[in-house]
Specification:
This protein has helices at 17-31, 62-71, 80-85, 102-111, and strands at 2-8, 35-41, 75-79, 97-100, 114-117. The chain has 118 residues and is an alpha/beta fold. Helix content is 35%, strand content 23%. It has a 5-stranded parallel beta sheet with strand order 4-3-2-1-5, with helices on both faces.
Length: 118
């Protein structure tokens, strides 16, 4: 099984980096059997993992997209140090997102066959 790590650094809204990263994750899951998708949220991308996001009708919703990736077997982790720095380490994240650390991030980096950054 091929493992692909997608690293997201940007906030969920304002740019389309998180949106495009998650579109890539969904396409990999849909069109490529035998691909394991892992997503690591860094810096302001941590806000992608917060629940109860409200977006206007017709506008993409990062929470819904992340849930779809998780429900299809994607693994999502969020940087604990980044979370502490932003004062959101005590907030609940979307079900299926785990707080992690640089040691696990480094391990994923070594284990994965390809790495994409957004």
């Amino acid at each position: 099984m091929q493992k692909i790590l997608i690293i997201i650094n940007d906030a969920p809204y304002g740019t389309e980096k998180a949106y495009n990263a998650l579109r890539m994750a969904m396409t990999l899951q849909k069109d490529h059997d035998g691909v394991e998708v892992k997503i690591f949220l860094l810096a302001d991308a941590l806000f992608c993992g917060l629940p109860n996001q409200k977006t206007p009708d017709g506008f993409y919703n990062i929470e819904r997209i992340l849930k779809s990736v998780i429900n299809k077997g994607g693994e999502v982790k969020s940087c604990g140090g980044c979370s502490q720095a932003r004062g959101i380490d005590s907030l609940k994240f979307i079900k299926g997102i785990q707080l992690s650390n640089m040691k696990e991030f480094a391990q994923w980096t070594v284990e994965c066959d390809k790495i994409l950054t957004f």
